[in-house]
Amino acid sequence: MRPSPSARLARPFGALAIAAIVVLVLVASVATATAASRPAKARIANATEKPAAQASKRPSALTRCLRRARKARSAKTRLAKRRACRLAAKRARAARRKTPTTTTTPPPTTTTPNSFGGDVFGVSTGGTIQNEDATTLGRDLDSMAGTHTHWVRVDINWAQIQNGGPSSYNWGAIDRVVQGATARGLKILGTIDYTPGWARPSGTSASFGPDPTQYATFAATAAQHYAALGVHAYEVWNEPNLTASWTPKPDTAAYTRMLKAAYPAIKGADPTATVLTGGTAPAPSDGTQIAPVDFLNGIYANGGAGSFDAVAHHPYCWPANPGDAQGWSAWYQMYGTSPSLRSTMIANGDSAKKIWATEFGAPTNGPASSNPVSEATQASMLTKAYQLYRSYDWAGPLFFYQGRDAGTTTDTRENFFGLTRYDFSAKPAYTAYQQATTS
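Now predict its structure.
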């Protein structure tokens, strides 16, 4: 047997010497272990403290907005932008007070794969693509098909189709879009919206909340017409929880009456059709607009439970990321707030129904008050959105808004949601979309 270190030392020295040496060895060992442990503890401390320090140093959205405002050329523009920044910050604070409360930590997302598979991918076209000339329309549809998307969301514009009166139908402009998309192998979600002049009071806009019977009559005719063109999915209005989309102001009871009339009308014309509620947009319940969760609860409260096959929602969340536990985030409101869209559906016996995200995205330019993101950030948000959405077993398709930028002027954010720029050049989000469809 190999002798121990103390036995080897005992031979040339006495017992006292041996004891002294053992003590020295023990002291040295402790000192060495202590010294060796310090860098590891320091690394642990630094790793714990550094993110907190970085977070505390990160400027607020208002500060970032004011910094951008200082870059304006004229004093008048700088003043106007600073005012816009402060107004946006005030509105954000008000929204946070009005939106549903968040849970302490985000609930874990389900690991059950999304049952739609590749069909989760969609692109929303916006409301004017049908007015493009044939060449531009063809380029837009080719661009969308090039992302490998499966769905395209198209407005079935009632006000345009029946502009000539209740017995007049002009399907041509919308048909061009539908036929062009289906020829490229794309499926259509048709959003039936906008009230024609003859069906609303004089002096009102096309966003006026329609008569349920008149709307249902047109919806049935549209479903019959477009079923022959391969369309079998419909959204009943767009963003009915916003004043801009339902005038004079949102009304869940009035909307539910229309939904209850439209559902059997569409199903009667096309029994295979999937009928969605109107996609709700981010908003607080402030007496003018209605928060998405409150709006859905209002549909149930007014007897609308049996009048839709899926819930449509617009989970915009910039400048936060999809999945961030923020009570104001329309993404997080799908499942994370209390109540949420999902908890409301479950409480009303609709756990088997899906949520279709019929618009999602972020602008890459526009007024500072709209908090535009960089093109790189838009791409990373898209990637994360599809990764998360495909993991939710309660989710239907997710439609990125929109295919191409609507313009170039920076006075509105609405010009900059596209996967491509106005000149058709690809943003990083276009490549990110292609990669998402093949991952």
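Strands lie at 101-102, 121-124, 151-157, 187-193, 233-236, 274-276, 310-313, 337-338, 354-360, 395-401.
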